[in-house]
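Render Small ribosomal subunit protein uS13 in 3D.
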Amino acid sequence: MARIAGVNLPTAKRVPVALTYITGIGPSSAATICDAVGIDKTARLNELSDTDVVKIREYIDENFTVEGDLRRETQMNIKRLMDLGCYRGLRHRRNLPVRGQRTHTNARTRKGPAKAIAGKKK
């Protein structure tokens, strides 16, 4: 089992698909990595030699922010918005939708389950 960026990748899958198991690498980034390192996109991960896996690992370390670093960077950006007190930061702080969605009826994923209001029944 290949281990890249702290993630155990599935060996039976094709290389671009296996690389998408790393947080921060999607299908297009995985295809770019395969092209840059010179690996066939139809090859399976268990068919690669150790040198190929090392090439992939080094390329990802040089050119991409992945896994823990990416999560930390995202959390720091959200914390910065909250500290600034801007509108987006306030929405994050109140656990409401940030990007302009309506909240009168929808937004249950973000707001959580509906809470009953006492004395509302007529």
